[in-house]
């Protein structure tokens, strides 16, 4: 018996982190692929070493951690560089995720928030996939309101899979076009379905 492995995805500013927080409140074990990457980018960690190997020591700060302000624009501006980075980092994230799964209980629902799940073929690593969706224009405005430069936000949106691609790999689609109360109601319905699925896996 193993925990139910759930992938949570969605485009930039779709609200997936808010959905992840709600699922955590409801009892899921929630982790964030970006947070796992941040840990891997600390001094001496394998992610920092990989970045230095791929792009040179100029991408590291004096303490040996990854300079994300320098790495981000370079990677998003060059699909080839982004692909090379993903090929190295994603297996490292997967290893950390397995450690979290092993620590969870058999009847747990373990949610991995992974923005690039559709792009990286991550469907097969999960028992269920949830995507959070909203129209591109609304997501762009949300990204700008939270401080991201409009051009950078648009570039990140262009670098991600289209909504249709995420929907195609998802078992559950949460539309986030209204307020928090409406969103919470939709998340509760998905949580109930996931718990039923987890229970059936352990029966």
Describe the structure.
With 203 residues, the chain is α/β, with parallel strands linked by helices. Helix content is 56%, strand content 13%. It is globular, with a radius of gyration of 17 Å. The N and C termini lie close together (9 Å).
Summed up:
This protein is of the alpha/beta class. The protein has helices at 16-26, 33-40, 46-55, 68-76, 79-103, 136-145, 150-159, 163-169, 180-202, and strands at residues 4-10, 29-32, 109-113, 128-133, 172-175.
E-strand count: 5
**What's the CATH class, please?**
Alpha Beta
CATH superfamily: P-loop containing nucleotide triphosphate hydrolases
Shape: globular
Indicate the proportion of strand residues.
5-15%
CATH architecture: 3-Layer(aba) Sandwich
Q: Which strand order does the major sheet show?
A: 2-3-1-4-5
Indicate the radius of gyration in whole angstroms: 17 Å
Low-confidence runs (pLDDT<50, min 5 residues)? Answer: none
Count of alpha and pi helical runs: 9
Q: Structural class of the secondary structure composition?
A: alpha/beta
**Mean pLDDT score:** 92
Helix/strand order, N-terminal first? EHEHHHHEEHHHEH
Measured as a percent range, the helix fraction is 55-70%
CATH structural fold name: Rossmann fold
Largest sheet: 5 strands, parallel
Distance between the termini: 9 Å
Count of all domains: 1
